[in-house]
Design goal:
Shape: globular
Strand content: 15-25%
Structural class: alpha/beta
Order of helices and strands: HHHHEHEHEEHEHHEEHEHHE
CATH class: Alpha Beta
CATH superfamily: Vaccinia Virus protein VP39
Length: about 300
């Protein structure tokens, strides 16, 4: 961070006991309950998230595609906002390329992992970490320069946002005109998933992404409340402030990350499918399908 900039500040979160007290009064999951469930789920896996659960071969392949796209879109020396930084792998990659990153996450344990990774990488001057969820961006101040040059989010943190239009509005406030958003988002139509679970007789699980509202997804005996999108549905929330630049499928011909054992048994065939996906994944119909999609938008 340059000396002319002010540190990013965040409003103090409500005390944990106040959140829990409000939850007890609810008979159905409230937004606050969903957020707390999701945070607890990611806190519970933060310690080993860099292993097979969160960084296996297939995840790394998608991550490389996101990095290559983002590094083409971000001007040199950009000031970046990381929405849902996880354990900080993306933040360090961009910092190593000369960008300055404000890395945020709703999971306190993930933020601590990012801080440790930044310190170990000797990049404390390039990456600032904040315990702020994607639903709390109204608590961020952009500093004396007024704007971020771009924002990015990888592997679906925005699928956990209870109000995507609010996120879009805050991104428009925080990102300068002409700045870019580079997001990878969990998609609504994943052919691999539909076939995989249908063949096992788990029709409900095969169709889980068809839900139009928050969906409970289990992880480590906890619940992540997830919303699924088609690219056009996702962009609709951002359309007032951002024009769609391009999007492409991730994990369309290549299996989704939870089928990494299948990938390893059939690596050569899957690598061929991956090259096919690299060539065809941005075509109009195909980009609507896949485990994730990668979307790039530009601030109006």
């Amino acid at each position: 961070m340059k000396s002319s900039e002010q540190p990013v500040s965040a409003r103090e979160l409500p005390p944990e006991r106040s959140v829990r007290a409000s939850l007890r009064a609810c008979t159905a999951p409230s937004v606050e309950a969903q957020l707390l469930d999701t945070r607890c789920a990611f806190d519970s896996v933060a310690a080993d998230y860099d292993g097979p659960r969160g960084n296996n071969d297939l995840i790394q392949r998608m991550r490389r595609t996101v990095w290559e796209t983002a590094l083409r879109e971000f001007p040199a020396g950009s000031r970046l906002l990381d929405l849902g930084c996880g354990t900080g792998i993306d933040a360090l990659e961009f910092a190593r390329h000369g960008h300055r990153v404000v890395a945020t996450d709703w999971s306190a344990a993930m933020v601590e992992r990012t801080r440790a990774r930044v310190a170990a990488g000797g990049l404390l001057g390039s990456v600032e970490t904040l315990h702020v969820g994607v639903h709390q961006l109204d608590g961020l101040e952009a500093g004396s320069v007024g704007r971020f040059d771009a924002a990015y989010s990888n592997f679906g943190p925005l699928n956990c946002a209870p109000d995507l239009k609010q996120v879009a509005s805050e991104c428009a406030r925080l990102v300068r005109p002409g700045g870019k958003l580079v997001f990878s988002v969990i998609g609504r139509i994943c052919p691999w998933e539909i076939v995989h679970y249908t063949l096992r007789g788990r029709i409900g699980r095969a169709c889980v992404r068809a839900s139009r509202g928050p969906t409970a997804v289990g992880m480590n005996r906890h619940t992540i409340w997830t919303r699924y999108y088609l690219p056009r549905e996702f962009h609709r929330a951002f359309a007032a402030g951002f024009r769609l630049q391009h999007c492409r499928a991730l994990g369309l011909f290549v299996p989704p990350p939870y089928l990494v054992d299948f990938y390893r048994r059939h690596r050569n065939a899957c690598e061929w499918l991956g090259r096919l996906e690299d060539r065809l994944g941005a075509l109009p119909l195909l980009r609507n399908m896949g485990d994730h999609f990668l979307i790039v938008m530009q601030r109006r």
